[in-house]
Each structure stands twice: as C-alpha cells, then as structure tokens.
Amino acid sequence: MLEICFRLRIRCVSAYVFSIDNFKRSQEEVDALMALAEQSFAELIQYGNILQQYGVRLNVVGKKQMLPPNVLQAVEKAEEMTRHNDSAILNLCIPYTSRDEMTTAVQEAVHTSLEHGGATDVITEKDIDAHLMTTKGGSPPLDILIRTSGVMRLSDFLLWQCSEDTQIQIVKTYWPDFGLFDLLPIILDYQRKVWTA
Amino acid sequence: MFRLVSSLALRLIHVLYSLALALLYLRRRVGGRPRPLASRRNKIPAVLGLLLVYDEERTCTQDLVDSLVQCAEGAAAWCRAVGVKQLIVYDRQGILRTPSVRARLQLPGPVHGDTLLSDNLYPITPPLSDDPDSQTPPLSDSSDTETVVASALSGAENSTVKSRRQSSSRHWSQRSWASRKGSVNQESTLSFHFISRDSGKPAIAAAATTLRRNETFLKLADQEYGDLFQLTVSDLQDLVEGDHGFPPPDLMVVHHLTPRKQPPTPLELHGFPPWQIRLSEIYHNDLVGFQWPFLSYTKGRARKPYSVFTEQDFCAALDQYAGAEMRLGK
C-alpha cells in the first residue's frame, strides 16, 4: 500500500500504529506488540529499500518516551537513516493520541512564547499548528483520512489536522486487506472535490 | 497524445464512478427504514452533537435561519423524548448563537452560558457576577491579573499543572464555580450548548494564551521560579471541557442543510472543535437534499431551499449508535 501511495505521488502518509490507550491491554499483548515493533524497525533499517527508493523521510510521531529502550533505539536509528530524504514523508504514530499531540503543542507554544517574549503574549491557532508533531516533521495539511474496519469514529487520531475540510473516508475493509481497489474510489472522490472547487 | 488518452480515460472512469454512486444512493434510499423513535434501543447517547452544514458562500437568508431553528427545535424535542441529557448544536458561523436567533428558539431546557469565544480568555477565578445569564467575562487587564491568579493559587481542587514547586497548585478547573453560578439546573433532563468554529481551535488558542499569561505572572512574582511550564492532557481537558467549554458528544450527527448537486460526498467536519470528537460515534446524514430532477425520492425535500433534519434522520442516527461497539484501546 505504501508503494502504491508513493507511486501515485502522494507526498505524505501517516499511519496509526499504536495508541497510548493500547497500553491498557494485557502486559503480555503489549510486550508482544513492542517486540514486533522493534523487529519491524530493525528490518526497516536493514532492508530500507522502499524508503530510500522513493526518498521517504520516516518520522515516528508520538510520546516516544513511553517506548521500551530497545524499541526507542530502533526508532531513532530508523529516523536517522532517512533524515535527509525529502521526496515524501511517512509518519508512524506510535505511541500516539491526538489529544496528547494537541496538549504537547499547546505546552510548546507557551514555552516558545515565554522564551521569545516580544510585544504580544497572544498564542494563535497557527502557533499551535506549528508545534504539532506532524507539522514539525514537515507534513502538509491533511487531505484525506481513511478509517478502516467500518468503525465510524476517529479514535483520537489527527483530530486537529482533520477537523476542517479533510475528506474522512470510512471503509468496511480491515487494514491487512486494504488494497488498490479500496483506495481507488477514495482517490476519485478527492479528484471530484478538487475539480469542483 | 498519451496525456490526451489518459485524460479521456480518467474522465470515463469518473463518469462510470458517478453512475455507480447514483445506483448506490438509490439502493440506500429504498433500503430499510430506521426504527421508530419510541423503540427500545440498547443504548442512547447521553450527549448528542448536531453539526449543521450549509453553503457559507450564500448570503444568510431568513430561510436558512428558519431551517436552523427548525433543526435545533426538532432535535431538542426528540432528544428529550429518548432521554438524551445534553444537546450540542454546531453551525460554523454561529448563526444560532446570535441573540436574535436565540430569542426565537423554543427549547425545553436551559442553555449553557455562551461557550468561550476566541477573543475571550479563560478566567482563572470565578467571575465577578453570579448572574446565570452573564457572558463569560474576559480576562481583565494586567492590573487585575495579579489578583485573579493569586486567587487561583489559593484554591486547589481538581487538576494541577505540573511543577517542581509542588507547594502551589494552580487550579484551572471551573467546576466549583459552576455549582455556585447555578447556570445549569442539575435537575433538568435536557440542556443545550450552541457552538461555532470559535468554540474549537480558537478556544484552545485562548486557553494557551491564558496559561502563557499566568506563567509570565508567576515568573515575575518569583524570580527563582525556573521550572519549565508543563501541561497534561487532564489539565487541558478541564479547560476545554469545563464550564467555559462543552463535553464531548457520544454521538455526532452531520446533517447537510444545503441541497447538493452531486452524489453523496465524503464526510467532512467543517471546523467542528477537534478536542471533543476523539471517541464520538459519527453519523453522516448524506442521503438528503439532492436536486437531480430525475430522482424522485427527494422531491418533497429538494424543492425547499434547505433540507431540514427530520425525526427519521434522528432515528437512523440512534440506530447506528445503538449498534456501535466501543473498545477504548483494549
């Protein structure tokens, strides 16, 4: 699916990999998921062809300090490996919630305002937007948000980014099975919107 | 030549796609009707949000205002009938919040004090007046800030902003103020919030400005204070969902008032406040208001300038909510 996106020249893809709320699952399950994450990042480092081929910069977005040290090390290595790529962006949100991202952005906007001082102490929407983790990683505004498995909820994912004119597409297909034929009508809907704007 | 062929092929794909959407639309329109309002459902939302979408490029006419009022009053009546506790009605431009329109609304319950506008700031302490109809007072000028923040420091209830100086706790929540203010009768079965885009991102920015000003005061007051300002999700939640904000809707219905000339379009949120929608079940009422002359199912509605939210739409939303499963990360 990533390769399809990059071939279609979709410049930025963000995927919700693991929620902060997922830590509520059993310790066994969380440990297994973290082990899988470490393995995936290690493979990415070793066989990072697709990222290098399409010039993709990898950003891991989320409260990284919650990750086990071994996973955090693999994450930092993978990010460092692709830091200078500038053709496309892949955001992997782990562990992430949008509320945590918005709270962190408000906190950092306050820090920045206090450090810089200046004539005005007013913090604007744009200031908060500039401090979002996705924005800091170079992500453009969000055009399409795809929710798989037919669930009609956003589940704390990219809420600030999708609350204006992002097209939110709910598909019944579950993620592992999501493919080109699921993506095609979504792309057509987006084109219709752009053409009629 | 290749570009021309590709362009024609793409256009053909779009024509076929539009036909497929039209057929799907017809199929959904003739599909099963929702259960009646009085039907027993295994769960009902405690807080319901109604997002009313209209073409903002058109001039605001009396027809639009009448339609907004009709939608709000209808939703209020049905909410009361099924036991919804709070109804949040959103229109991007805040037409329903204007005094003249609010005066027209016939509602069976109290309306929460105006949700914070972007040019107001969150007061740290209770307002000067206990008048339940008073507007949220803006944070006053710098000469009053010291008193305001000092009062906040003396009161310590719910959430606290993290600081290495643990002896002082800064109190952002206004819940104790609400019980004294008495603006909401806790015994009412249904209460209302009327919100607009200003209640979302601008309100979060206003909260950030308040926090920033408070930090400036604290740094001036204590030269040794060198702690980095820290904010938790709970702190911001107390500000945004507290007495100057509104709670997250369990179910949010997106209804299009303005008739559209295309097959159903994907869901968009039209500036609805982002903080509150993290777990909201969303019902997109996208089957209404098409003006295709050869489709007769909307003929009754489509001839009117706006498509009003109906009891059938409301029931369909309730049916979707009743069937939704919430896992909450587990």
Automatic annotation (TrEMBL), chain A:
<dbReference type="InterPro" id="IPR001441">
    <property type="entry name" value="UPP_synth-like"/>
</dbReference>
<dbReference type="GO" id="GO:0016094">
    <property type="term" value="P:polyprenol biosynthetic process"/>
</dbReference>
<keyword id="KW-0808">Transferase</keyword>
<dbReference type="GO" id="GO:1904423">
    <property type="term" value="C:dehydrodolichyl diphosphate synthase complex"/>
</dbReference>
<dbReference type="InterPro" id="IPR018520">
    <property type="entry name" value="UPP_synth-like_CS"/>
</dbReference>
<dbReference type="GO" id="GO:0045547">
    <property type="term" value="F:ditrans,polycis-polyprenyl diphosphate synthase [(2E,6E)-farnesyl diphosphate specific] activity"/>
</dbReference>
<dbReference type="Pfam" id="PF01255">
    <property type="entry name" value="Prenyltransf"/>
</dbReference>
<dbReference type="InterPro" id="IPR036424">
    <property type="entry name" value="UPP_synth-like_sf"/>
</dbReference>
<comment type="similarity">
    <text>Belongs to the UPP synthase family.</text>
</comment>
<dbReference type="GO" id="GO:0005783">
    <property type="term" value="C:endoplasmic reticulum"/>
</dbReference>
<dbReference type="GO" id="GO:0016020">
    <property type="term" value="C:membrane"/>
</dbReference>
<protein>
    <recommendedName>
        <fullName>Alkyl transferase</fullName>
        <ecNumber>2.5.1.-</ecNumber>
    </recommendedName>
</protein>
<dbReference type="GO" id="GO:0005811">
    <property type="term" value="C:lipid droplet"/>
</dbReference>
Automatic annotation (TrEMBL), chain B:
<feature type="region of interest" description="Disordered">
    <location>
        <begin position="122"/>
        <end position="180"/>
    </location>
</feature>
<feature type="compositionally biased region" description="Low complexity">
    <location>
        <begin position="169"/>
        <end position="180"/>
    </location>
</feature>
<feature type="compositionally biased region" description="Polar residues">
    <location>
        <begin position="134"/>
        <end position="148"/>
    </location>
</feature>
<dbReference type="GO" id="GO:0005789">
    <property type="term" value="C:endoplasmic reticulum membrane"/>
</dbReference>
<dbReference type="GO" id="GO:1904423">
    <property type="term" value="C:dehydrodolichyl diphosphate synthase complex"/>
</dbReference>
<feature type="transmembrane region" description="Helical">
    <location>
        <begin position="6"/>
        <end position="26"/>
    </location>
</feature>
<dbReference type="InterPro" id="IPR036424">
    <property type="entry name" value="UPP_synth-like_sf"/>
</dbReference>
<keyword id="KW-0256">Endoplasmic reticulum</keyword>
<keyword id="KW-0472">Membrane</keyword>
<keyword id="KW-0812">Transmembrane</keyword>
<comment type="pathway">
    <text>Protein modification; protein glycosylation.</text>
</comment>
<protein>
    <recommendedName>
        <fullName>ditrans,polycis-polyprenyl diphosphate synthase [(2E,6E)-farnesyldiphosphate specific]</fullName>
        <ecNumber>2.5.1.87</ecNumber>
    </recommendedName>
</protein>
<dbReference type="GO" id="GO:0045547">
    <property type="term" value="F:ditrans,polycis-polyprenyl diphosphate synthase [(2E,6E)-farnesyl diphosphate specific] activity"/>
</dbReference>
<keyword id="KW-1133">Transmembrane helix</keyword>
<comment type="similarity">
    <text>Belongs to the UPP synthase family.</text>
</comment>
<dbReference type="InterPro" id="IPR038887">
    <property type="entry name" value="Nus1/NgBR"/>
</dbReference>
<keyword id="KW-0808">Transferase</keyword>
<keyword id="KW-0460">Magnesium</keyword>
